[in-house]
Amino acid sequence: MNRLADATSPYLLQHADNPVDWWPWCAEAFAEAKRRDVPVLISVGYAACHWCHVMAHESFENEQVGALVNDDFVAIKVDREERPDVDAVYMTATQAMTGQGGWPMTVFATPDGTPFFCGTYFPRANFIRLLQSVATAWRDQREAVLRQGAAVVEAIGGAQAVGGPTAPLTAELLDSAADQLSREYDATNGGFGGAPKFPPHMNLLFLLRHHQRTGSPRSLEIARHTAEAMARGGIHDQLAGGFARYSVDAHWTVPHFEKMLYDNALLLRCYAQLWRLTGDRMARRVARDTARFLADELHRPGEGFASALDADTEGVEGLTYAWTPAQLVEALGEEDGRWAADLFEVTEEGTFEHGTSVLRLARDVDDVDPAIRARWRDVVGRLLVARDTRPQPTRDDKVVAAWNGLAITAIAEFLRVAALYASPDDEDANLMEGVTIVADGAMRDAAEHLAAVHIVDGRLRRASRDKVVGEPAGVLEDYGCVAEAFCAMHQLTGEGRWLELAGGLLDVALARFAAPDGGFYDTADDAEQLVARPADPTDNATPSGRSAIVAALVAYAALTGESRYREAAEAALATVAPIVARHARFTGYAATVGEALLSGPYEIAVATDDAVGDPLVAAAVRHAPPGAVVVAGRPDQPGVPLLADRPLVDGRPTAYVCRGFVCQRPVTSVDDLVAQLG
User: Fold this and answer.
1) Cβ neighbours for 93, distance < 8 A, ≥ 6 positions apart
2) What is the pLDDT of residues 402-417, one digit of tens each?
3) How many other C-beta atoms lie within 10 A of the C-beta of residue 514?
4) Which of 237, 299, 512, 621 could form a disulfide with 442 if both were Cys (CB 3.0 to 4.6 A apart)?
5) In this predicted model, what pLDDT tens digit does every residue of 485-500 receive, in sequence order?
């Protein structure tokens, strides 16, 4: 009996018709394994995962495999995006046993959840032999199996432990982290490391803030070059905007085609901040198109943002996105087709599979003759129309709290930068205005959905779908990312309720997730007890829960003036500082928040009747130091602590700048405000 038909997870629903008698993750499944005295097969993946689909087609849809699993195991299917706590524990076990990890993740465990054999993808023949071998070992070598499980649990308990060394995250340490990134930087292709190459969004955010603090041209150059290399590469959708999960090569040419909400949210922040700091036209274009992708492709009206677009279309990677020269000619005509093939490096040999190519920009299209830009825009529009007639990848429609938080924060930052540079004289001013309107609506939709649906009895739930919230409890990254998003909404809208919501989530985090050393666990103290309580301090595809909660604590403390939240942030960041010193590439968000703390962060309040168009507001946004909070509105606006007791001076709009709870004199001119922020 397959029990997945009523699941809210699209990934579980993909397996609802398998011949495997799947259970969702639940206590009843483990009780059934204990009753039958059989081991548990735990299969972990996610809806947009290519190799998860492959293993599903090869094995889990196969009657022989189904019979073997059903006879000798209790099978549990887990969506890693819905249950990151379960995924974290068993991924640590998999890495401890095999030296690597990934999805699909295949774990064999005792009826109490203790893992004793772990792996990832197995071809069908290998998987059949593995099932037979594990079943035999469970029957005939039980004692050895249990010893192996105990050793694994001991290993993952140590890997997830709290209570390690602590140290202040100083300027010297952050400078050292920037130097470490500089040494590991790929000066030819941008980014860090070789194939596969992932967009280093959190490291770029750190480097941009490091450049602001120190004036380092090297940090800015690494960020700028990497941003342009990704924007020109096949990892960036040259037609519709948005970025794929990673590049299978070292030079960003061929992507793994899934598009994740979290990547695009974090990359939107990178390009928006690069645009803010430099005025770069490339950064402006990519920020705009990434915001448009989020609003058009991932936003679910009346809800939040969907999790991902699938890597496959009808079981084929790249079917939607790859082109041949002949297909370009068919869509554009002979002359424009040849021109597009040259611009997008589409060759007869192909850069992908079967003579097809992934579109990438061979030349600059931003700082060129307006006629060339006009031709490029026309070609992109016609190619997109042609591509829309192709089969399209499916969408994972579940709304994940943490990732929606990242998207809300990113769009809020983008909107402020877009307002800063808005000009009716721009050739694409109408396009930018349209994008800001739809992005603003999508952002507000998502924030309202999180507040109304995901917060249940004061606690945060991890995921929802079709406006129905799931049972899995929110983990630390959910509390951190959503609280930071609510702080961003407070700054953008001047509405006090967002700050109140952020404070409620942070109070729960401090009460339920805090560790004795000042750090945090990833699960609450009253959450389901797994074989280990995860507490991973490193930033990977998304900010760690610890980095996320610190970012929210820092912003909230600056917005409210309540020092205990800042003290909690400093104590938590001190538990990550020793890791920043050794592994800068895997602590990018922690270092980003460290720059904010080192900066102050500045608290900038503008008392004005025009919170959007006042030149003082524009100057505050344009020159805001790393991590600064900016609030604008009428004096003594209810629910806005930074505007309390801050009147207009001589009836003129007035800026108030504080840093580290020490305030400077009120100013009414842009020049004086810029001087205070310099």
Assistant:
1) 107, 115, 118, 152, 153, 155, 156
2) 999 999 999 999 999 9
3) 19
4) 299
5) 999 999 999 999 999 9
Torsion (CA) 511, 514, 517, 519 in degrees, nearest 10:
-140
Give the burial class of 195: count Cβ atoms within 10 A of its Cβ; 0-12 exposed, 13-18 middle, 19 or more buried: exposed
Alpha helices (H) along 39-118 = 50-55, 63-72, 84-98
DSSP element (H, E) containing 263: helix 261-278
3-class DSSP assignment, residue 658: strand
Q: At what angle do helices 142-159 and 124-140 cross, to 10 degrees?
A: 110
* Two tokens, residue 433: 């205005």
β-bridge partners, 655: 606, 667
Tell me which amino acid residue 197 is.
Answer: K
Place of tokens 């002359």: 335
The DSSP call for residue 511 is H
Residue 370 preceded by cis peptide, ω within 30: no
Per the CB < 8 A criterion, the answer to whether 247 and 254 are in contact is yes
Is-contact 501 490, C-beta < 8 A? no
Q: 491-507 in b/e burial notation, b at 16+ Cβ within 10 A?
A: bbbbbeebbebbbbbbe
Tens of pLDDT, residue by residue over 4-22, are: 998 889 999 999 999 999 9
What is the distance between the alpha carbons of residues 573 and 596, in angstroms, rounded to a whole number? 12
User: Is the previous residue joined to 104 through a cis bond, with omega within 30 degrees of 0?
Assistant: yes
Q: How far apart are CA 588 and CA 538, in angstroms?
A: 9
Check: CB of residue 117 under 8 Å from CB of residue 147. Answer: no
**Per-chain mean pLDDT for the chain:** 94
- Statement: the pTM of the whole predicted model exceeds 0.70: yes
From the list 308, 209, 171, the residue with the least C-alpha distance to 588 is 209
Contacts of 162 (CB under 8 A, 6+ apart): 515, 516, 517, 519, 521, 535, 575
Does residue 39 have a cis bond before it (omega within 30 degrees)?
Answer: no
Question: Which helix (DSSP H) or strand (DSSP E) does residue 331 occupy?
Answer: helix 325-332
Residue carrying the six token digits 């596969």: 196
Q: For residue 84, which of 69, 57, 103 has the smallest C-alpha distance?
A: 103
Name the amino acid, one letter, at 530: L
Contact 390, 319 (CB under 8 A): yes
Contact 271, 227 (CB under 8 A): yes
Q: Helix (H, G, I), strand (E, B), or coil: what is residue 327?
A: helix
| Structure-token pair, residue 347 | 């060759």
